Amino acid sequence: MEQTTFFTLGQRVHSSTDPRRVGTVKFVGNVEGYSGTWVGVDWDNEGDGKHDGSINGVRYLQGRSQNSASFLRPQNLSLGISLLQALKLRYQSQSTEQDEDEMYVLSASNKRVSVQLLGKDKIQDKLSRFEELTSASISYLGVSTPGDPAEISASVPNLKELDLMGNLITDWKDVGTICEQLPHLVALNLSNNLMTQNITGLPLLKAIRVLVLNSTGINWSQVEILEHSLPVIEELHLMGNNISSIKPTSSSTVQGFDSLRLLNLEDNCLAEWDEILKLSQLKSLEQLYLNKNKLTCIFYPDKNKIQEFLSNHESCEESYFPFQNLRCLLLGSNEINDLASIDSLNTFPKLIDIRFSDNPIADPGRGGLPRFVLIARLAKVEMLNGSEISARERKESEIRYVRLVMSKLLDNPEEINCLHPRFVELKNFYGIEDERPSVGAAGPQKMASGLLSITLKCVASSVGEKLPLTKKLPATTTVGKLKALCESFFKLKSLKLKLFLQEEGSPLPMLLDDEMATLMDMGIGNESTIIVDEES
After folding, report:
1. What is the pLDDT of residues 16-48, one digit of tens each?
2. Strand partners, 72
3. For the CAP-Gly domain, which residue ranges apply (predicted)?
């Protein structure tokens, strides 16, 4: 680190007028054509700069992007303040008249109406008594140092939760100092503080149960070092750190973290499920967040692989099963696109909460599976994509799924067993018989039994509000035929229609865009609701 009069290369700073504008010092010195000393900063937010670190063809620093760097006078930058200074600034400073003036709402006539906070003085008085403070948020205030350790423990002795997001802290020793002086601290948020690679000297953080390290630049090797200082950690959040691999230090799987219940690895660069399996021996792990990664498939190790694992790891108990207590697995916004990945989730011993949204396999608009098929294929799941699966929705989904498979693959039993592992189980459970074209006197009865009660809701804006209609339609009715019927039912002759299936628990209705597909082909069951709209 090169020393200069005011600043140090690599030092974290923020704009003196905006503590949310945070960056790293990459240059200090003269700039050709301009007098005096300049500080070159590469800002965290790529849009906060003016160039990439070069001026008039001369490069002074290498910015993260074309508009992430800028040069400022030293007086326009702040080196930060201490933890206690930030607490006083946030909780003991009085609101100004300007602050009061900015508190308003707009009336119906677009006039400002001042807002008065009832009990504001009482609340402010309570928060200003530091000895009673149990939770504090001093995010984006430019905290760069703990300050006097003795003052911290004397001022806020009962602090249990501390939010330090977006400050200028970089040294793990400073984190250790803060935690040592706050013996009751159980939750610490260090997100958006760019931490150094060196974690040596960190003391035992005996009370920390929740640690948030989103966008701190940490890698898994550092996480392994941190584990020794976190004996009771229950929640660990590591979002946005470009983690692409899990690298255990002492064996092929991650060890320790005996109390860890929730691990958040969202918004990273994990692409191989083999990397995730290295977490499978975390026996207390109940929630694993993997949204916004690059995973293409998932699988659960078969019995042979489990036995092989046990033989190679003498420390494992005989009763070991991968992810043996995992209840919640979030996989949204990945690149999963195979049925085997869906079906493998049934093998996880206790998994009941799944998120699969924004994956190709679960997006009907990209040829993926609709919600009812996912529910039918996932036998034990109680929560799908953040929406609870009721007993009624499961029953209806499974029956629809069986009828859908029967309509398409009844003459190919081998393909059914291969592609639809739950089909026979569900067909037998609900007592659904094979539906074949019938002849003779039984014909009309078979036709009646194939009728579906469908509720049609017209929402076409050009025709105004219309009451819903409930009609009994043959399961063999095509989407194209249903559009023609809707034109007649709702008197919509001059409109081009779109039909959507409204599914319970699904945030968006499913577009029925194949005019040759039948209601049975689309898995539409009895008492379904179809929305009738017009082309925009």
Report:
1. 999 999 999 999 999 998 899 999 999 998 888
2. 39
3. 29-73
Q: Which CATH superfamily is domain 11-78 in?
A: CAP Gly-rich-like domain (2.30.30.190)
Beta strands in 301-344 (DSSP E): 328-330
Give me the phi and psi of 128, to 5 degrees please.
-75, -15
pLDDT at res. 92: 82
Question: Counting Cβ atoms within 10 Å, is residue 286 exposed (0-12), middle (13-18) or buried (19+)?
Answer: middle
**Residue from 239, 152, 147, 227 nearest 190 by CA:** 239
Dump pLDDT digits (tens) for 323-360: 999 999 999 999 999 999 999 999 999 999 999 999 99
What are the strands, taking DSSP E only, across 32-98?
34-43, 54-55, 58-59, 69-72, 77-78, 81-82
* Residue 348 tokens, joined: 């996880």
Report the pLDDT value the prediction gives residue 6, as an integer from 0 to 100: 72
CATH classification code of 451-534: 3.10.20.90
Domain ranges of the chain: 11-78, 81-92+121-308+321-394, 451-534
Closest by Cα among 209, 205, 203 to 258: 209
Q: Which fold has domain 81-92+121-308+321-394?
A: 3.80.10
Tell me if 181 sits within 8 A of 162, measured CB to CB.
no
